[in-house]
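Q: Give me the 3D complex with adenosine-5'-diphosphate.
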Amino acid sequence: MPSHAVEAQARPAAGAVAPARTVVHKFGGTSVADAERYRHVAQLLLARGESVQVAVVSAMKGVTDALIELAELAAATPVGATTPEWRERWHELRARHRGAAVALLAEHAGPAVEWLDQRFDELAQVLGALSVIGGLPGEVLQRVQGQGEVFSARLLGEHLRSLGEDCAVLDAREVLVVSHGELGVDVDWELSAQRLARWRQLNPQARVVATGFVARDAQDRITTLGRNGSDYSGAIFAALFEADELHIWTDVDGVLSADPRVVPEAVQLESLSYDEACELAYFGAKVVHPQTMSPAIERGLPIIIRNTFQPEHPGTRITSERDFSGPVKGLTLSPNLALVNLEGTGLIGVPGTAERVFAALRNAKVSVVMISQGSSEHSICCVVKQEDADRAQAALVNAFAHELTVGQVQRVQQVPGISVLAAVGDGMAGQPGVAARLFESLGRAQVNIRAIAQGSSERNISVAIDSDHATRALRAAHAGFYLSPQTFAVGVIGPGNVGATLLDQLLAARGGLLERANLDLRLRAIASRGRQLLDPRGIEGDWRGRFQATSEPADLDRFTAHLLDSHLPHVVIVDCSASPEVADRYPQWLAAGIHVVTPNKQAGAGPMDRYAAIREAAAASGARFRYEATVGAGLPVISTLRDLLDTGDAVTSIEGIFSGTLAWLFNKYDGSVPFSHLVTEARALGYTEPDPRDDLSGTDVARKLVILVREAGRALSLEDVEVESLVPESLRQSSVEDFMARLQEVDAAFAARLASAHAAGQVLRYVARLDADGRASVGLVELPREHAFANLRLTDNIVQFTTRRYCENPLIVQGPGAGPEVTAAGVFADLLRVAAGRGARL
Ligand code: ADP
Ligand code: ASP
Ligand code: MG
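A: Here is the predicted complex, encoded as structure tokens.
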């Protein structure tokens, strides 16, 4: 049909019936986990109108592992054990296969079950022999571990036949001949093609089901293509059958930008070049075996990775075409590695050292995953498999024995527990800044980089890191390349007035931040003085209900460990308590790389040594300490001061009204109502602390002044501030009720001060001051009626900075400076600044 001919040129639409041609489909263990899945696979194959269709199958999910375990168990079981453990496992495995056969084939199951029983009897004989030998020869392991594919192909073949399809089952051990070389498994193409041609003469069916994974070696012994080798089998059969395409069916929508088990936000890639797929596979992307590419590349055969559970999804197409988008397409992790480091001053400028390292490792049959040499040539480091590390170290010690004795080489060191993180993409070539972005993301996530290597193809940058950091590193890098959001584990302490409002604001803004700014603020923990709620995934919605329901006692050690356990790239603790004990923890949090954001004045105004420890810890680790909301709530007071100082300005004096409560009282106090009445009114309106003496004493204002003065670089302490308390000595010790009841005792004194101010044409204001000669004071002062401080709205705060640049006319920050809404917003803004500093696009 002419329409078919046209279609054959084009990429078939998803799920469409393909035109007449040869296609090899490989089904991984995840696609054939049980009878139901085999049925699904069969339907999927039958729906495709290919002229020759080859289905290469893996063993049922988990069967290869089970077979290997069986062999190891048998070899380790002494003969004569009454019911050896391997027997039980063997029974289980046979039952699983029989069960699948019966479920799949129903009344046609008889011959298949009989055949399976024979195979399992043979297997039992081999296992029995292993326990007699008391060891596991490689050859026997090869034979045993490949059995699952033989069972699997048979099951699918029988099922297709039971559906009335004429299909042939190809045992790859009859045709495929391979040899195991240093670089992996090589196919004897000529011999294999001959054997296949012969097999085809006897089995000319259009539909073939073939075993993956298994083959024979040149000595005609049964062998396998290595773990996950069925992908390679698929590619080999695609070449041998001269297929037009190879489809690799698995349980994900194709190749993703990272392993979805580590980075759940990983995105599906529409297309990849062979080179990109090779690098990803080589560096551990399990979705496709690295050797799969070579037969395909040689023939220009497209490989399509796709999802059996979602057959209509187009999947990922791997071809020779390159596109330079990205620049990074995918990231991988290879675990279980070690670093072997050769270090010595005697290596500097000596040619051929790298060559000797390579030669020594090659002779010791150690394959090198990555090698890197500092430009100082002072050390060469190689990353090798953990299992090869001792051999590698010994080989180098041996090869450089002379240099070690004479001191030209100081040491050959081994560092275990290493993973390699690789960033892959064709678009990286010639594009500056990719490596910088990777290192920046890792640096910000506090990941220590041990070694770096970039292939000359510039398609891959690999970094060796501690395995303990691997998950965090992968997520941070993934987010760093905007492949997934910047993610923060957030913990909030003190869900009181400000804390609760912040939690509401945070949860309300979460969705928008995720969508617009690609920022994922994940609330993982809330703690009050008594209780805490730790959530592994993130608290959403009704945090109050969940917090009330929690019965876990507060424990800040566990709280901290829980936040760190998330392996999220960034961790931030928001302290909305007013507790000095919580502030005591800041240095240790910051040292661990946890950012701290707080409206708690304890740290900024508390003991100088704690303050210094906080600053030092933050400077050393790079974690941020932000406390904008401690002064002027949401007003940009500290950040304005910072900007002045950072741009080279110098502060001469600071002056202001830092208390919304005191601002309100003196704005209102004009003599028409006694002062005590105003305090009572303010308390009723919720403008004061529960005990109004906390406001009237002036300590809170003094604390804010200390914070600003310290920020300006001077070592001021609370004791250094001259504080005028508005609470007379006689009222300081009594209860709140008693204090409120006796409050009118202060009225006469206030009235007198007001009268004298008015007589001079002035008003009273409670002002904080750092004057030009460094004197810090807070207290009630008289100011002209036209003064900026005399003309504020009721509870407004005001801060006035006189600096070298702003000398004639000071810089003023003014606005509402109290209330849970604006304070929480100030804290939230700090949190967002921390996120922006870590690369969030805000
Ligand atoms: P199969 O049995 O089909 O061969 P595998 O378990 O061998 O399946 O490979 C598929 C799995 O590989 C996926 O389920 C996924 O968890 C994992 N994987 C690791 N890295 C990637 C990646 N970059 N893209 C897609 N899947 C990946
Ligand atoms: N069944 C084999 C394994 O698990 C081969 C494969 O599925 O690719 O390694
Ligand atoms: Mg696989």
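A quick observation: The longest strand covers residues 330-343.
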